[in-house]
């Protein structure tokens, strides 16, 4: 190629470098665009300069091939020759060198480029996260990121959730030498207190870990547990200044009668004078107060301009105010009210001075809390001498003095706040130091009251929430550090002198990140302490350090073990429990298979049950129930090699296989498939339990039949093999040379085999008895049906069966109210089935003998042969009852087969023969009914051609039908059991139905009458109900079917034309007497509304409303039901119906309203019935009915509810009606809307002030009332009536009564928005729960 003439023509290489050495930089990318001729050595230099690392302390490797060795730093080879591609993005990773983190380059303040400034200046960004808990769940944070200590040498604190405020304060106290040393000198006496509850001891442990731990960050859970906090406290946001006060108080309590008893006061307590001086005579009254911090106002009340500096705020703090005019002070000397001056003077400053910048305020315009983000500077060195009282506590002899220091410990202005914080990811701004040059400070004489700034606790966010972190200067090296939860980083002096002093608020005026608490230390060489070195620790701290070190090493070893432990699912068919047991096997990767087998043996509690040498571990696929392979000859191989290494999850499982002592383990080779073989007996119509056979996919069908013959003893020549490929597919394997793979075999398969010389072999498979038997087996489910309890007279007015026999002995005599037992019905039905079956067989035999068209069919009759329906016979009286309209012959013999558990939810529909299947497929003395209303040939369920070899037996059966859950919540009406002409719409398919008695023992010892029903789930609900008629004793239109779910909830099944496909084995059904719904009808629950009763909502009855019915018609139909069932003798004009929403009364239904036209109605609808004391006043939909209640504050009582009917939504009309009702003058009447659910209960102690009385609106349908419907609750009162004055005893008594009353009604004792939880530290180990509290 031609040479490159100029550098501009040289191709460029784009390098994108990800720094993986640090959790906080893993999401950052360094981008370098370099000439292609750049050497690898130069690349290292550029990356070091860009990242701010010392060259040679890190490695560079390709990002897309992590296993490749790092690039050679000494290489002089160009980037292109080293594998970089010009014109494309080349991804690299910056990694540790020899396990050590890169060394951070020292910052040169004179030549700091943009990249290094981004790297080092200021606390690190929050990785784009939002919320105070971001560090806890940040994607860049993992457990491994806290294992290595920060390169700063300092350890961070893990944010539990929202404990950033706690972390900031703890780090500040840890970086305070005097506090840390004093804490180390205190010795914990374990005999006196539980270490878990000892706050000083847990702080001591934490400080030792912060000083000596090798971790990047440590937890604070032990400290918070000593506070008496539970895990929920970690999600509470609090104010750091409030925490400081509360924690200091707790420490003082714990340190009583110890050397540290006065530590907090010695370090943090100051004194000030609160005085009032008469301006006429000079008399001064004063008292001494103590403080732990000084709250400084950012912006004076009512002012728009904030103080510009801490000095201005301090001057304002001690600025006296003049008491004049109405605020004049009564002078003891002048004996009159005089003008006076009131103010504060500092008498003594503490050694550690704490300043709180009061950034949280209340905006009385918006009535919300706000945060003041105004710029306020503060100096690195603060001279407090201008603010001290020059009189040095000397006052005139005539002054009045009190010392309240002991009573008022803490801040002189106790404006404590508890705020909700969420992270605000703004740049750190608004933290400003006084811009005084070092030369100016040198000229200024040093005062004995000069304080040095060492901690700035920063709040980022709003008044609603935010995040705390701390910038702290180390007294060891005078270096500033950012302690941001688990992240600790250096803050350059450039940041302190430029970023803070120039105040980035100028560039970003809306910044919400600013200083909130400042910590200063008095500059006094005689008192300024240094941190204790490890060698100088007291003996008890050395012992504590050793214990923590051992604990940390143990934790490290445990992590190493965890990292080398294989965790895999283990299964075992337990020989005693007779069920598949699941567990988790945790085995070290170096353990052998023999050792792992012994561990699994003990894990499954098989010791003493089976010998160890009868067990082995095999590779297993639980999803497909497939044994993949066994491990013969590999007993001494490590588990790490067998399982393919240590992984978080495996794509396979292990099975602990058990054999009998006389058996030998069968080897399982990779590539084999497992086949479950079910033997079918056509004579007994039974399907045996499966036999497991292993085969190869390349075997032919002929070879496969020979394999089955060896396992089952059947004849291979006459064998028919049917593969169930999936849930709805049966396939006859008839091509001899076809392989199993070609036939669709997979890992785990299920086949049915039949080997007999019957003529059924000659029939087409889909017409054969075998197919019908398998089809029935695949679709049969077992249901438990609970029958209704009937009293002798309950059937007096019902007819048992519309088409019942005229023979009184063979029919149910409903007129006499007689009721036969389920067993009697079953016996009677069985006898009739036998007789009818013989008649039908004789008739069919005659038909077959006279016809040659059926010569291909078997001469042996089966359950599925055509049976004429007796319902179609002209003479119904000569036939048995209607429930026997479709029958089959019942055999006299019972066949018992081995059983196993089965599940409908099996992936491959593994319907192995169980006790259920045995009962279904073997004959028994019970009524087996095939439901068919029409005579004719038997249609195939799938509608396939009779010559088709493969039969899809389920999917076609439901073609065109929608399967839904049969619940009473289907709101599109109900399908009637009868058509418009009243004819039955019975199902026209032959479907299996068999019943047997079943006794369910209840708590009373008496068994509830139940049926165990085996049926084809393709049966419709209508046919299912018709088959149950003989056992219920009433027609299907007179009982309801309820499906019972796992939580014992019942839902009515109402869609009669839908099948029971959504049901599965052992589902429960409850039958209840009552009229079933017809099309357009809806079941309705009626509740009585009793507005002045303690329980205002009372259930009355269930009824049925129909589409198109008027409200008056429904009321007329309700009258006899109310009289019979509820003993309510009413007339239609004496009650009304109204909407019910939960427990709230709503729209009043007028008599002329029509359901579905004027009133929306749905299944399981609920309405209120309200008895009227006077004629109905609601005549029109334009009217509004509200429930009003008078509050009498002078008597502390609420009067009863009274309804007020308004012609409009006018507030004026409401007041006029209330004034007319109560006699309160219109101008004195105030009202408020009730809150919550009817009856809007509220405590009598709170109603007077908590409700929004007298809202400033003219109509009721606007905010804040929103009264647009009937049933709203309105409280009203006379505003001139004074509230009763209660003594403390009376108030407590009333509070108890109200709490008891409101708890009984299920209402809260107080109704108010969520209040912030007060910050408390519990000295006795935790809060005590008040059972009366909500």
TrEMBL record:
Residues 103-114, 397-416, 791-802, 878-898 have a biased composition (Polar residues). Residues 155-523 form the USP domain. Keywords: Hydrolase, Protease, Thiol protease, Ubl conjugation pathway. Residues 899-909 have a biased composition (Basic and acidic residues). CDD domains: peptidase_C19C (cd02659). It catalyses: Thiol-dependent hydrolysis of ester, thioester, amide, peptide and isopeptide bonds formed by the C-terminal Gly of ubiquitin (a 76-residue protein attached to proteins as an intracellular targeting signal). Residues 837-856, 912-928 have a biased composition (Low complexity). It holds the Pfam family USP47_C. PANTHER family: UBIQUITIN CARBOXYL-TERMINAL HYDROLASE, UBIQUITIN CARBOXYL-TERMINAL HYDROLASE 47. This is Ubiquitin carboxyl-terminal hydrolase 47. It comes from Cyprinus carpio carpio.
